[in-house]
Automatic annotation (TrEMBL):
Residues 1-30 have a biased composition (Polar residues). Its main location: mitochondrion. Keywords: Hydrolase, Membrane, Metal-binding, Metalloprotease, Mitochondrion, Mitochondrion inner membrane, Protease. Residues 1-39 are annotated as: Disordered. GO terms for molecular function: metal ion binding; metalloendopeptidase activity. Belongs to the peptidase M76 family. This is Mitochondrial inner membrane protease ATP23.
Amino acid sequence: MAPSKTDATMASSPRYQAESSSPDAAVTTTRELDNATENGLKDQKAFERWRKTLSLITGVGLSQTEFQEELSKANRKQCELRKEQLIKNSPGVRFMMHNLVKAGCPLTKNMIECAPCDATKSGGFSKDHGILLCENGFFSKKHQEHTMIHEMVRAAALSGDCNWSREVRRGIYNFTKQHQECVKRRAILSVEANPECKSRAAAERAVNAVFESCYNDTRPFDEFY
């Protein structure tokens, strides 16, 4: 069917041609393509994060070496994030860091290091390097908080390490003098871990000799934390 005179007139009309090749239409199309590409990249990144998380949980799709590498990265990232949050917001951590400054032993966040440890430890202290946080040794943010305070004050009694809930998690259910017994037990373990300690018996003797005076000394706290 031949085009009508009206159709031919419209096709040759400058107004019709201007509308067909409108710059606004081209810009809109380009913007839509850009948005679609950006959304596609976001979806791809979200999927990749989900895949890595699933792989860490199940181990599927990763070799043993890759699994350990990804797990180590995740542990380090979580430990560092919690460290920053606790230094900023934890009353106990902030209190201890303030009192260390007053005592002439300032402790900066750069002196608190996250690193992998063996499965029996959650933290440590070195007078030359500062505090070690075992990035693979924490079961919660509260656990990391107690470890940071413990290493700052070097006392199970004042760090929250012997709270009733922590003892229950360890499978210990004493109803009388539980706190004292926990503090003594963990102090002995700490002394025994010192390379200079000769034996378990020597660690027990050292702790028993000073236990009463040390247990009753809550400085810099007014009471047990």
